[in-house]
Amino acid sequence: MYGITAVIYADISVLKIVLRVTKNFSSYSMYILRMVDLLFRALPTSSRQLVQFRANRLGRDIAVGDIHGCFSALQTALQAIDFDPIRDRLFSVGDLVDRGPESHRVLEWLDKPWFHAVCGNHEQMVFCTASGNPLPDVDHMKHGGDWLLTLTARERGVIAERLAALPVAIEVETHQGPVGLVHAGYPFEDWHDIRNFHMTESAIDCCLWSRDRHVRRSEQPVANVRALIHGHTTIDRVERLGNVIFIDTGGWRRAPGHFTLLDLHTLHPIAPQSSGRMLQETQAVAMN
């Protein structure tokens, strides 16, 4: 049942694109797709451990590091690489909110048919805070959560519900094999484990919070996945450890922080096309 759910949900954006391209995207079609979209967004969190996407045959699949409420800066970076919302898809490694000035725009971005995200530790903090059960060992307000105080209780609840529905992991098919996205760490040695086993609380904590691989500088590859993309750990430039790539280069920070936009098919950061500003790294991270 879950596999069918994931495939249908992942193909909604493709169907919208096809309808737009063929100019048959009537208001009735939009209504039907919206209802299907909302249905699958409303699934319990426990069933959204992994969402799988088929290969994008129309354009590029791109991963971006932690956004932290800096959506205008992200939009500028996307414009610089000539991002096409009709053909391209953008995958976030989580931490959409907190710290930056535009966290309140998160629902606007989650409603975009070409934008998909995994859950990060800041999404977990927002859900817990908005639910009246803040994490006991983390002061969310000191980590950028004070924007929630500007919202009504209803607004906080709507945002928290949407963030809680984000999957722990995303898998994107490419011509050279699947690429995974998980926010912080990965608790298994094999990518198939996240497909086949229900995750424990400690395993989910690893996915949302762990920096163990980066701290240990472990080169041990994750089996049965072409590459695994992480954010969470802010670094100056893209780093590769085994087949794991860290891409949070601080786009939410002041310069020299910048958004790395990684092409999931080539595994190269994309250089700007329509702007001379270096909004992300241009060196290749080849992983063939």
From TrEMBL:
Cellular component GO terms, alphabetical: cytoplasm
Gene3D superfamilies, sorted: 3.60.21.10
Annotated GO MF terms: bis(5'-nucleosyl)-tetraphosphatase (symmetrical) activity; phosphatase activity
EC number(s) reported in the record: 3.6.1.41
Protein name: Bis(5'-nucleosyl)-tetraphosphatase, symmetrical
GN (gene name): apaH_3
Keyword Hydrolase: yes
Organism: bioreactor metagenome
InterPro entries xrefs: Ap4A_hydrolase, Calcineurin-like_PHP, Metallo-depent_PP-like
Segments forming domain Calcineurin-like phosphoesterase: 63-233
Keyword annotations: Hydrolase
Protein's UniProt keywords contain Hydrolase: yes
GO biological process, one term: RNA decapping
Pfam families according to UniProt: Metallophos
